[in-house]
Amino acid sequence: MDKPMNRIKEVLEERGIKQTWLAEKLGKSFCIVNAYVCNRRQPSLEVLFEIAKILNVDVKELIQSSGK
Fold it and tell me: Which of 68, 53, 67 is nearest to 45 (CA)?
């Protein structure tokens, strides 16, 4: 069974935003952000809300499945 597409990754790709940019805005390392994007690590709720704010999306958009 295919792994579901990561919504953080989808939003970054849709907007042409690099993971390095998000890492800088979050004050986290690229490795941490890459782990979030690749589903190796889950962000805390606090960090998830911060990501949503930075990307200007509703946090619900980051946690629902994309259906792709």
Answer: 53
- pLDDT (average), residues 14-42: 96
CB atoms within 10 A of CB 3: 7
Give the dihedral of Cα atoms 38, 49, 51, 54; nearest 10 deg. 170
Residues across the chain: 68
Whole-angstrom distance, CA of residue 68 vs CA of residue 2? 11
Round to whole Å and give the CA distance between 46 and 48.
Answer: 5
| pTM exceeding 0.70 | yes
Both tokens of 21, joined, read 């940019």
